Amino acid sequence: MNNRQLKFRAWDTVAKQFTYPDKGYQGHYVLDLNGRFQNLQNGSGGDEYVVQQWTGLKDKDGKEIYEGDRVRFGYTEKEDFFGEVIWLEDRASFGVRYENITETFEDLGFSQKYFEVVGNIFQLPCNPDHNGECLVCDNWLSDCPFNKNEQE
To answer: Can you name the residues that pair with 91 across neighbouring β-strands?
Structure first.
């Protein structure tokens, strides 16, 4: 039997920030029979929140990896890939979508050594330097894999 801890975070679309019930949020999330979290209140009973689940994994820096996170990963130290952490319904597993490919963490040979959370779907990680080159993925912003995914 798997005793993995279930943890969630919620993106507040009004305040533009995450709430974590175990990190200062007053209270806890209550899931109703329809699969909605009822005690996330910000006006209309929670419609302003997007709830995401923790994968049960941490990246190379010990940061928890949640659904919706943007990650940098590589099979070797020589090549980096960038992708979005998603729930794969057909495989009942979390995985990463990158370059039109979707793989589970197991398929990718998950190793904390090679995964790094660099942002999330609500906050693009790419920050340009003074020349317009992304400080996260080392590409020009026009070639940034995260910005390309957002434009598609």
So the answer is: none
Provide the token pair at 108: 């990718």
- Can you give the pTM of this predicted structure? 0.73
Buried b (16+ CB within 10 A) or exposed e, 64-101: ebbbbbbbbbbeeeeebbbbbbbebeeeeebbbebeee
- One-letter amino acid at 102 equals T
Question: Cβ distance 110 to 71 under 8 Å?
Answer: no
CB 84 within 8 A of CB 68: yes
Cβ neighbours of residue 120 under 8 Å, at least 6 residues apart?
A: 11, 66, 68, 69, 70
- For residue 69, give the nearest of 14, 113, 13, 11 by alpha carbon: 11
Domain range annotation of the chain: 8-151
Strand partners, 37: 31
**Topology at the third CATH level for domain 8-151:** SH3 type barrels. (2.30.30)
Residues 74-98: tens digit of each pLDDT = 766 677 888 889 999 998 999 999 8
